[in-house]
Design goal:
The complex is a heterodimer of chains A (163) and B (362).
Chain A: H1 3-14, E1 21-26, E2 29-35, H2 39-48, E3 54-62, E4 66-75, E5 80-89, E6 94-96, H3 105-116, E7 119-121, H4 148-151, H5 155-160
Chain B: E1 4-8, E2 20-26, E3 29-36, H1 44-48, H2 56-61, H3 68-83, H4 89-117, H5 121-142, E4 151-152, E5 155-156, H6 164-186, H7 190-196, H8 204-209, H9 215-218, H10 226-229, H11 253-277, E6 292-301, E7 304-313, E8 318-324, H12 326-338, H13 346-353, H14 357-361
Antiparallel strand pairs in B: 1-2, 2-3, 4-5, 6-7, 7-8
Helix pairs in contact in B: 3-4, 4-5, 4-11, 4-13, 5-6, 6-11, 11-13, 12-13
The chains are: A alpha/beta (163), B alpha+beta (362).
């Protein structure tokens, strides 16, 4: 039994009902899906009890009917990654900020707010970071249009007239 | 005297690109600092959503012109993890060769930029001179000096050219001698040591907390090299020593310099080993056009931990791509390095961090 199996069972025992889904995605990677209200306590336990000291990345994904915040935690000792997906409703894109736990979350969350428009509650300075301050949209959302026609014309597209 | 803010950038000889370091100073001492980034934002993650998986390699090359191969490789690795593609052994070894050549070229570019930051113009000329040799190697391998468009989903674009091992050996042997010369120029220069030692310090705990990775974290004395921690490609079969600061008080500009400098030697060792160990066989696997699922890959980029997170929805383009740039995270921690130092050291500190604005702003 690998390290990730042991860790997964510990997480499962610690949070028996919070996880909608908990599995080993590939060797060395645990994946868990939770609702947004459980994020803070799960993340706190992951850092303080399970030893995931490195917050590698925060990704916001627009699934058209809901948002998802994907957190990649990493344990430097065991080299295990924990991928935590937090589900966020579309009409109320708010989730707890993890800046209190990891300062690394600061810039990642600002970027997610900037490009995807997810509000991180408790963030010390939730400003735009990559786009100009007076920009009014969140361009990574799927309803933000993109001029695909001018991007390039592939041979297949010319032949079939579309996808 | 009252405290006031000074803008270092967006146009400044130190910035190596387009970003603004706002520094709050009291006399000569830095009280606070705040990076302002985004001047080079090109909307990579959005553009990648409408281009096919394979065609995105052209884009990821341009994330950082100094280390194109490492970035494209990280992207290809993520797509392979998502689609479950296995790269043939020869393809993996060729990747290791090209990655390490690129790493040396990238570190030499950093060294070339760090010299003038400290007023050492010789450093610029010497480092760029030797960088050209490694770019020649890359040109021989891929056909281009920069933006090589070399890694492919499922392998690499072409096989090693004939006699490539001879050229590699020649360049590496020549470069090893030159590295000793560099050492004389840098390590034994009293002025260089005075400008870098004890300047821009960050503690290990802070560095981990703020997400600092790569050589900047190893300079704090924390042994983490993703090529060792979770080996990708064939890094578990090569013999090299991750460069970690072993001294008592790490985390300063000098430690960062020493780690990067030592890494060039180790990369040269890996190049020679990989060239010898590459077995014959195919170098590229057939990759499916469409893919569904999610996958991420983290690699040891020249500047730290690069992470690509790719989601496919069954179409021939990614549904979502996320780029984790190591410089983006390190930039968040620069105020910690700057606080308490003198205004004149800002350039010496930020130069040692190795900023690449292209990947930071995406």
């Amino acid at each position: 039994m690998g390290t990730e199996d042991v860790l997964m069972q510990r997480v499962q025992g610690r949070f028996p009902s919070e996880f909608r889904d908990l599995l080993i995605a590939r060797p060395g990677v645990i994946k868990g899906v939770i609702d947004r209200q459980d994020l803070m306590k799960v993340a706190t336990a992951l850092r303080d009890e399970m030893g995931f000291e490195h917050l590698s990345c925060i990704t916001a994904v627009d699934w058209k009917d809901h948002f998802e915040c994907v957190y990649h935690f990493y344990d430097y000792d065991t080299a295990v990654t924990f991928q935590l997906n937090a589900l966020i409703p579309y009409n109320d894109p708010k989730v707890d900020s993890l800046v209190k736990l990891w300062n690394a979350a600061n810039y990642h969350e600002r970027e997610a707010w900037d490009l995807m428009g997810i509000e991180f509650v408790g963030h010390p300075k939730l400003d735009r970071i990559l786009l100009p301050k007076d920009f009014r949209y969140h361009p990574l959302r799927k309803d933000f249009p993109q001029e695909t026609e001018r991007q390039y014309i592939s041979r297949r597209k010319l032949k079939t007239g579309g996808r | 005297m009252a405290e006031f803010w000074v803008n270092m950038g967006p146009q400044h000889p130190m910035t190596h690109g387009l970003w603004n370091m706002r520094v709050k100073i009291d006399g000569e001492t830095i009280v606070d600092a705040e990076p302002e980034i985004g001047y080079l934002h090109r909307g990579y993650e959005k553009i990648m959503e409408v281009r096919e998986f394979q065609k995105n390699v052209v884009l990821t090359d341009r994330l950082c012109y100094v280390s194109s191969v490492t970035w494209s490789h990280a992207y290809c690795l993520a797509v392979e993890k998502m689609a479950g593609i296995e790269v043939p052994p020869r393809g993996q070894w060729i990747r290791v060769v090209s990655l390490e050549i690129q790493r040396v070229a990238s570190h030499l570019m950093w060294l070339a930029a760090y010299g003038p930051d400290l007023g050492l113009l010789t450093g610029l000329l010497w480092a760029l001179r030797e960088r050209e040799l490694f770019l020649d190697l890359l040109q021989l391998l891929t056909g281009a000096r920069m933006n090589q468009n070399f890694p492919r989903v499922g392998g690499v674009r072409n096989d090693l050219p004939p006699d490539f091992d001879k050229y590699c050996r020649k360049v590496v042997n020549h470069f090893m001698k030159k590295l000793d010369e560099y050492e004389d120029l840098m390590h034994s220069s009293k002025i260089f040591l005075m400008r870098t030692q004890g300047v821009g310090r960050i503690s290990t705990a802070d560095a981990i907390d703020w997400g600092v990775t790569g050589p900047n974290l190893r300079a704090c004395g924390f042994d983490v090299d993703l090529r060792r921690k979770e080996p990708y490609e064939t890094y578990e079969e090569v013999d090299f020593e991750p460069q970690v600061w072993r001294g008592a008080d790490g985390g300063d500009s000098y430690a960062r310099f020493a780690c990067r400098f030592g890494e060039m030697r180790e990369s040269c060792k890996i190049i020679l080993q990989a060239i010898d160990k590459a077995p014959s066989g195919p170098y590229r696997a057939k990759a499916p056009r469409r893919a569904e699922g999610e996958g991420f890959a983290r690699t040891e980029d020249s500047r730290g931990e690069a992470l690509f997170y790719v989601i496919g929805d069954g179409d021939d383009r990614p549904y979502r791509v996320k780029i984790r740039s190591p410089v983006f995270c390190t930039m968040a921690a620069t105020p910690l390095m700057l606080r308490g130092n003198k205004m004149a050291d800002v350039v010496a500190i930020l130069g040692s961090v190795d900023v690449c604005v292209g990947e930071m702003d995406k």
